[in-house]
Design goal:
By secondary structure, this protein is of the alpha/beta class. The chain is built from seven helices and 15 strands.
Length: 320
Protein backbone atom coordinates (compact mmCIF):
# COMPACT_ATOMS: atom_id res chain seq x y z
CA UNK A 1 0.00 0.00 0.00
CA UNK A 2 2.84 2.38 0.84
CA UNK A 3 4.56 1.70 -2.47
CA UNK A 4 1.29 2.37 -4.34
CA UNK A 5 0.82 5.70 -2.52
CA UNK A 6 4.41 6.64 -3.35
CA UNK A 7 3.82 5.77 -6.99
CA UNK A 8 0.74 7.99 -7.13
CA UNK A 9 2.65 10.86 -5.51
CA UNK A 10 5.46 10.45 -8.03
CA UNK A 11 3.00 10.36 -10.92
CA UNK A 12 1.35 13.58 -9.75
CA UNK A 13 4.76 15.25 -9.46
CA UNK A 14 5.65 14.19 -13.00
CA UNK A 15 2.31 15.56 -14.19
CA UNK A 16 2.86 18.95 -12.56
CA UNK A 17 6.29 19.24 -14.15
CA UNK A 18 5.08 18.23 -17.61
CA UNK A 19 2.06 20.52 -17.67
CA UNK A 20 4.14 23.70 -17.81
CA UNK A 21 2.11 25.30 -20.59
CA UNK A 22 -1.04 27.16 -19.58
CA UNK A 23 -4.14 25.21 -20.40
CA UNK A 24 -2.24 22.32 -21.97
CA UNK A 25 -3.67 18.84 -22.17
CA UNK A 26 -0.37 17.01 -22.01
CA UNK A 27 -1.45 13.41 -21.74
CA UNK A 28 1.10 10.70 -21.17
CA UNK A 29 0.76 7.30 -19.65
CA UNK A 30 2.27 8.62 -16.45
CA UNK A 31 -1.02 10.47 -16.01
CA UNK A 32 -3.06 7.32 -15.53
CA UNK A 33 -3.08 7.54 -11.75
CA UNK A 34 -6.16 6.63 -9.75
CA UNK A 35 -7.27 9.89 -8.17
CA UNK A 36 -10.90 8.96 -7.65
CA UNK A 37 -10.43 8.60 -3.89
CA UNK A 38 -7.81 11.27 -3.29
CA UNK A 39 -9.17 14.65 -2.10
CA UNK A 40 -7.64 17.57 -3.98
CA UNK A 41 -7.46 21.27 -3.16
CA UNK A 42 -9.35 23.00 -5.98
CA UNK A 43 -9.63 26.77 -5.81
CA UNK A 44 -11.68 29.47 -7.48
CA UNK A 45 -9.55 32.52 -8.27
CA UNK A 46 -12.50 34.90 -8.69
CA UNK A 47 -12.16 35.34 -12.45
CA UNK A 48 -14.97 35.09 -15.02
CA UNK A 49 -16.30 31.83 -16.41
CA UNK A 50 -17.75 31.62 -19.92
CA UNK A 51 -21.48 32.29 -19.80
CA UNK A 52 -24.39 32.81 -22.15
CA UNK A 53 -24.84 31.33 -25.60
CA UNK A 54 -21.43 30.26 -26.89
CA UNK A 55 -20.77 29.04 -30.43
CA UNK A 56 -18.01 26.50 -30.94
CA UNK A 57 -16.38 27.24 -34.28
CA UNK A 58 -14.17 24.56 -35.83
CA UNK A 59 -11.11 25.47 -37.90
CA UNK A 60 -9.89 22.35 -39.72
CA UNK A 61 -6.23 22.71 -40.69
CA UNK A 62 -4.94 20.09 -43.10
CA UNK A 63 -6.58 16.98 -44.51
CA UNK A 64 -9.56 15.48 -42.69
CA UNK A 65 -12.06 13.03 -44.10
CA UNK A 66 -15.76 14.00 -43.96
CA UNK A 67 -16.29 11.05 -41.60
CA UNK A 68 -13.64 12.43 -39.26
CA UNK A 69 -15.20 15.88 -39.24
CA UNK A 70 -18.56 14.26 -38.47
CA UNK A 71 -17.15 12.52 -35.38
CA UNK A 72 -16.08 15.87 -33.92
CA UNK A 73 -19.08 17.95 -35.01
CA UNK A 74 -21.52 15.34 -33.67
CA UNK A 75 -19.64 15.41 -30.37
CA UNK A 76 -19.99 19.20 -30.13
CA UNK A 77 -23.70 19.01 -30.95
CA UNK A 78 -24.14 16.22 -28.40
CA UNK A 79 -22.95 18.52 -25.59
CA UNK A 80 -26.15 20.54 -25.70
CA UNK A 81 -29.08 19.36 -23.64
CA UNK A 82 -31.34 21.29 -26.02
CA UNK A 83 -30.53 18.85 -28.81
CA UNK A 84 -32.71 15.73 -29.17
CA UNK A 85 -31.97 13.62 -26.09
CA UNK A 86 -30.10 10.40 -26.62
CA UNK A 87 -32.17 7.34 -25.88
CA UNK A 88 -29.07 5.69 -24.55
CA UNK A 89 -27.50 6.71 -21.28
CA UNK A 90 -25.02 7.77 -20.12
CA UNK A 91 -24.83 10.56 -22.68
CA UNK A 92 -22.39 13.28 -23.70
CA UNK A 93 -24.93 15.86 -22.48
CA UNK A 94 -25.03 14.19 -19.04
CA UNK A 95 -21.25 14.39 -18.85
CA UNK A 96 -21.26 18.09 -19.75
CA UNK A 97 -24.10 18.96 -17.36
CA UNK A 98 -21.85 18.23 -14.37
CA UNK A 99 -19.89 21.38 -15.30
CA UNK A 100 -22.83 23.36 -13.89
CA UNK A 101 -21.51 22.72 -10.38
CA UNK A 102 -18.67 25.14 -11.06
CA UNK A 103 -21.12 27.86 -12.00
CA UNK A 104 -23.12 27.41 -8.79
CA UNK A 105 -19.93 27.77 -6.76
CA UNK A 106 -18.66 30.82 -8.64
CA UNK A 107 -21.82 32.84 -8.12
CA UNK A 108 -23.84 31.77 -5.12
CA UNK A 109 -26.34 34.64 -5.37
CA UNK A 110 -27.12 34.38 -9.06
CA UNK A 111 -26.66 31.21 -11.02
CA UNK A 112 -24.96 31.84 -14.35
CA UNK A 113 -25.86 29.73 -17.34
CA UNK A 114 -23.91 28.42 -20.31
CA UNK A 115 -25.28 27.09 -23.58
CA UNK A 116 -23.01 25.62 -26.25
CA UNK A 117 -23.81 25.08 -29.91
CA UNK A 118 -21.93 24.12 -33.05
CA UNK A 119 -21.00 27.26 -34.97
CA UNK A 120 -19.25 27.70 -38.30
CA UNK A 121 -16.67 25.31 -39.75
CA UNK A 122 -13.68 26.59 -41.70
CA UNK A 123 -11.63 24.26 -43.89
CA UNK A 124 -7.96 25.05 -44.57
CA UNK A 125 -6.92 22.02 -46.60
CA UNK A 126 -4.15 23.89 -48.43
CA UNK A 127 -1.96 24.29 -45.32
CA UNK A 128 -1.96 28.08 -45.72
CA UNK A 129 0.64 28.48 -42.97
CA UNK A 130 2.72 25.42 -43.84
CA UNK A 131 3.06 22.09 -42.07
CA UNK A 132 5.19 23.26 -39.14
CA UNK A 133 3.36 25.65 -36.83
CA UNK A 134 4.13 27.60 -33.67
CA UNK A 135 1.65 28.68 -31.00
CA UNK A 136 1.60 32.08 -32.73
CA UNK A 137 0.30 30.36 -35.86
CA UNK A 138 -2.36 28.64 -33.77
CA UNK A 139 -3.57 32.00 -32.44
CA UNK A 140 -3.77 33.38 -35.99
CA UNK A 141 -5.77 30.36 -37.12
CA UNK A 142 -8.08 30.66 -34.12
CA UNK A 143 -8.73 34.31 -34.99
CA UNK A 144 -10.33 33.19 -38.27
CA UNK A 145 -13.41 32.09 -36.36
CA UNK A 146 -16.06 34.38 -34.93
CA UNK A 147 -14.72 36.28 -31.94
CA UNK A 148 -17.91 37.23 -30.15
CA UNK A 149 -19.48 34.72 -27.74
CA UNK A 150 -17.39 31.94 -29.21
CA UNK A 151 -14.77 29.28 -28.58
CA UNK A 152 -12.63 28.79 -31.66
CA UNK A 153 -11.21 25.29 -31.97
CA UNK A 154 -8.22 24.67 -34.22
CA UNK A 155 -7.84 21.02 -35.24
CA UNK A 156 -4.61 20.06 -37.02
CA UNK A 157 -4.22 16.95 -39.16
CA UNK A 158 -1.78 14.13 -38.46
CA UNK A 159 0.86 15.46 -40.88
CA UNK A 160 1.13 18.90 -39.24
CA UNK A 161 3.96 19.52 -36.77
CA UNK A 162 3.18 21.82 -33.85
CA UNK A 163 5.71 23.35 -31.50
CA UNK A 164 5.61 21.25 -28.30
CA UNK A 165 3.19 18.67 -29.71
CA UNK A 166 3.85 15.22 -28.21
CA UNK A 167 6.89 16.39 -26.23
CA UNK A 168 4.83 18.37 -23.72
CA UNK A 169 1.21 18.55 -24.82
CA UNK A 170 -1.57 17.09 -26.95
CA UNK A 171 -3.48 20.35 -27.12
CA UNK A 172 -3.82 23.74 -25.46
CA UNK A 173 -6.39 26.33 -24.60
CA UNK A 174 -5.94 30.02 -24.05
CA UNK A 175 -7.33 33.41 -24.95
CA UNK A 176 -6.55 36.19 -27.39
CA UNK A 177 -7.69 39.77 -27.96
CA UNK A 178 -10.45 40.06 -30.53
CA UNK A 179 -10.75 42.53 -33.34
CA UNK A 180 -12.57 45.79 -32.62
CA UNK A 181 -16.31 45.27 -32.39
CA UNK A 182 -18.28 48.53 -32.15
CA UNK A 183 -15.06 50.27 -31.23
CA UNK A 184 -14.27 47.87 -28.40
CA UNK A 185 -11.95 44.90 -28.18
CA UNK A 186 -12.43 41.91 -25.91
CA UNK A 187 -10.95 38.52 -25.25
CA UNK A 188 -12.05 35.33 -26.93
CA UNK A 189 -11.19 31.77 -25.94
CA UNK A 190 -9.58 29.26 -28.25
CA UNK A 191 -8.47 25.63 -28.24
CA UNK A 192 -5.98 23.69 -30.30
CA UNK A 193 -5.94 19.88 -30.57
CA UNK A 194 -3.67 17.84 -32.83
CA UNK A 195 -4.27 14.47 -34.47
CA UNK A 196 -1.61 12.22 -32.96
CA UNK A 197 -2.30 9.14 -35.10
CA UNK A 198 1.16 9.07 -36.72
CA UNK A 199 3.20 11.27 -34.37
CA UNK A 200 2.53 10.06 -30.82
CA UNK A 201 -0.60 7.89 -30.47
CA UNK A 202 0.91 6.16 -27.43
CA UNK A 203 0.86 9.47 -25.60
CA UNK A 204 -2.05 11.49 -26.98
CA UNK A 205 -4.41 8.71 -28.12
CA UNK A 206 -4.10 6.37 -25.12
CA UNK A 207 -5.96 4.18 -24.23
CA UNK A 208 -6.61 3.44 -27.92
CA UNK A 209 -2.92 2.78 -28.56
CA UNK A 210 -0.17 0.94 -26.72
CA UNK A 211 1.37 3.36 -24.20
CA UNK A 212 4.84 4.80 -24.65
CA UNK A 213 5.62 4.81 -20.94
CA UNK A 214 4.25 3.30 -17.77
CA UNK A 215 2.31 0.08 -17.22
CA UNK A 216 1.70 -1.79 -20.46
CA UNK A 217 -1.79 -2.99 -21.23
CA UNK A 218 -3.50 -3.92 -24.51
CA UNK A 219 -5.03 -0.91 -26.29
CA UNK A 220 -8.79 -0.51 -26.31
CA UNK A 221 -10.84 -0.49 -29.49
CA UNK A 222 -11.68 3.12 -30.45
CA UNK A 223 -15.45 3.78 -30.41
CA UNK A 224 -15.46 5.44 -33.85
CA UNK A 225 -12.79 3.16 -35.29
CA UNK A 226 -10.36 6.07 -35.62
CA UNK A 227 -7.50 6.06 -33.11
CA UNK A 228 -6.35 9.57 -34.01
CA UNK A 229 -9.72 11.32 -33.97
CA UNK A 230 -11.07 9.37 -30.99
CA UNK A 231 -7.93 10.50 -29.17
CA UNK A 232 -8.63 14.07 -30.29
CA UNK A 233 -12.11 13.82 -28.74
CA UNK A 234 -10.61 12.95 -25.35
CA UNK A 235 -8.29 15.96 -25.50
CA UNK A 236 -10.95 18.29 -26.90
CA UNK A 237 -13.38 17.29 -24.15
CA UNK A 238 -10.73 17.93 -21.49
CA UNK A 239 -9.85 21.31 -22.96
CA UNK A 240 -13.48 22.39 -23.32
CA UNK A 241 -14.02 21.70 -19.62
CA UNK A 242 -10.90 23.71 -18.79
CA UNK A 243 -11.83 26.53 -21.16
CA UNK A 244 -15.27 27.30 -19.75
CA UNK A 245 -14.22 27.00 -16.09
CA UNK A 246 -10.84 28.74 -16.46
CA UNK A 247 -10.97 30.76 -19.70
CA UNK A 248 -8.57 33.54 -18.77
CA UNK A 249 -6.29 31.93 -16.18
CA UNK A 250 -8.16 33.15 -13.09
CA UNK A 251 -11.05 30.72 -12.81
CA UNK A 252 -11.10 27.23 -11.26
CA UNK A 253 -7.86 25.28 -11.07
CA UNK A 254 -5.51 23.46 -8.75
CA UNK A 255 -1.79 24.17 -8.36
CA UNK A 256 0.30 26.96 -9.88
CA UNK A 257 -1.17 29.28 -12.53
CA UNK A 258 1.66 28.40 -14.92
CA UNK A 259 0.79 24.70 -14.74
CA UNK A 260 -2.86 24.48 -13.68
CA UNK A 261 -4.79 21.28 -13.18
CA UNK A 262 -8.29 22.03 -14.38
CA UNK A 263 -11.72 20.39 -14.39
CA UNK A 264 -10.61 17.39 -16.47
CA UNK A 265 -6.80 17.51 -16.38
CA UNK A 266 -7.01 17.15 -12.59
CA UNK A 267 -8.28 13.61 -13.22
CA UNK A 268 -5.60 12.18 -15.54
CA UNK A 269 -6.14 8.75 -17.04
CA UNK A 270 -9.50 8.21 -15.30
CA UNK A 271 -12.43 7.24 -17.55
CA UNK A 272 -14.37 4.77 -15.47
CA UNK A 273 -14.62 3.51 -11.90
CA UNK A 274 -11.68 1.46 -10.71
CA UNK A 275 -9.11 3.26 -12.88
CA UNK A 276 -5.45 2.93 -11.92
CA UNK A 277 -2.12 3.49 -13.73
CA UNK A 278 -2.35 1.79 -17.12
CA UNK A 279 -6.04 0.92 -16.72
CA UNK A 280 -8.72 3.37 -17.90
CA UNK A 281 -11.42 1.95 -15.63
CA UNK A 282 -14.54 -0.19 -16.01
CA UNK A 283 -16.02 0.95 -19.31
CA UNK A 284 -18.95 0.04 -21.51
CA UNK A 285 -18.16 -2.23 -24.45
CA UNK A 286 -20.06 -2.27 -27.74
CA UNK A 287 -21.29 -5.82 -28.32
CA UNK A 288 -20.84 -5.57 -32.09
CA UNK A 289 -17.51 -3.76 -32.48
CA UNK A 290 -15.85 -4.49 -29.15
CA UNK A 291 -15.16 -0.76 -28.76
CA UNK A 292 -14.83 0.78 -25.30
CA UNK A 293 -16.77 3.94 -24.46
CA UNK A 294 -18.56 5.73 -21.64
CA UNK A 295 -20.88 8.20 -23.40
CA UNK A 296 -23.52 8.06 -26.12
CA UNK A 297 -23.86 10.91 -28.61
CA UNK A 298 -26.05 11.91 -31.52
CA UNK A 299 -26.38 9.90 -34.72
CA UNK A 300 -25.41 6.69 -32.96
CA UNK A 301 -21.92 7.96 -32.08
CA UNK A 302 -20.11 6.70 -28.98
CA UNK A 303 -17.29 8.48 -27.19
CA UNK A 304 -14.75 8.00 -24.42
CA UNK A 305 -14.71 11.09 -22.19
CA UNK A 306 -12.43 11.94 -19.27
CA UNK A 307 -13.55 12.04 -15.66
CA UNK A 308 -14.36 15.53 -14.36
CA UNK A 309 -13.28 16.88 -11.00
CA UNK A 310 -16.36 17.34 -8.81
CA UNK A 311 -15.79 20.47 -6.69
CA UNK A 312 -18.58 19.51 -4.30
CA UNK A 313 -16.98 16.20 -3.31
CA UNK A 314 -13.32 16.91 -4.19
CA UNK A 315 -13.14 13.68 -6.17
CA UNK A 316 -13.02 12.66 -9.82
CA UNK A 317 -16.49 11.85 -11.12
CA UNK A 318 -17.02 9.30 -13.90
CA UNK A 319 -20.04 8.51 -16.04
CA UNK A 320 -19.65 4.77 -15.52
Amino acid sequence: MASFASSCLLLQLVLLISLFHFGSAARSLAETSDQTQQPMLFQYHNGPLLTGKISINLIWYGKFKPSQRAIVSDFITSLSTSSPPSKNQPSVATWWKSIEKYYHLSNAKKTSSLSLSLGTQILDESYSMGKSLSQTHIKKLAAKGGQSNAINVVLTSSDVLIDGFCSSKCGTHGSSTSSLIRGKSSKFAYIWVGNSETQCPGQCAWPFHQPIYGPQSPPLVAPNNDVGVDGMIINLASLLAGTVTNPFGNGFYQGPKEAPLEAASACPGVYGKGAYPGYAGNLLVDATTGASYNANGLNGKKYLLPALFDPSTSTCSTLV
